[in-house]
Design brief:
By secondary structure, this protein is α/β, with parallel strands linked by helices. It has one domain: 3-Layer(aba) Sandwich (Rossmann fold), CATH 3.40.50. 40% of the residues lie in helices and 18% in strands. The protein has helices at 32-44, 55-64, 82-92, 109-116, 128-144; strands at 23-28, 47-52, 70-73, 97-102, 120-123. It has a 5-stranded parallel sheet, sandwiched between helices. Helix 4 (109-116) links the parallel strand 4 and strand 5. The chain is globular and about 35 Å long. The chain starts with 22 loop residues before the first strand and ends with a helix.
């Protein structure tokens, strides 16, 4: 039997229960290991992930799937770099969330990405806590408002 006193414990949110509708993210990176890591995280939140290994493939998928909610791209990808992907996708959807996730790091890469219009910048190796926080901020929390 449960005690008569009220338990004031904090409710723990399960990642899979945070989303009330399926969101889609397009992940652009030729590195399959990065895809598997990100895919594992995103599926815990009920987010559908599509992938592209090149910039041109990413643009094609984006055109064919207008309901993509977010794009995560490596800066160095074959065919069209992350900056070109950013420009092309923003022409089609100016409000799309675009996140740079890259191993290509130099002194001012983060500043370059943010100045170019990326919503966020994440360097590799992936900081799981930072990545999860960004996903919650841009994808999961907007769902709570609907």
């Amino acid at each position: 039997m449960y005690p008569d006193t009220v338990n004031s414990s904090v409710m723990v949110e399960e990642p899979g229960n945070l989303c009330c509708s399926k969101k889609k993210i397009l992940f652009v990176d030729p590195d399959i290991t990065s895809y598997y890591l990100v895919s594992e995280i995103l599926t815990e939140y009920g987010i559908e992930i599509m992938s592209a290994k090149s910039g041109l493939e990413a643009i094609r998928l984006f055109r064919e799937n207008p309901h993509i909610d977010c794009l995560i791209t490596e800066i160095k990808v074959p065919g069209l770099d992350g900056f070109g992907i950013l420009r092309a996708t923003r022409e089609m959807n100016p409000s799309i969330v675009v996140i740079a996730q890259t191993a290509y790091v130099h002194d001012n890469m983060k500043q370059q990405c943010l100045m170019a219009g990326f919503n966020e910048y994440i360097s590799k190796p992936l900081d799981l806590e930072l990545f999860t926080g960004i996903i919650k901020e841009y994808i999961v929390k907007p769902l709570d408002k609907n």
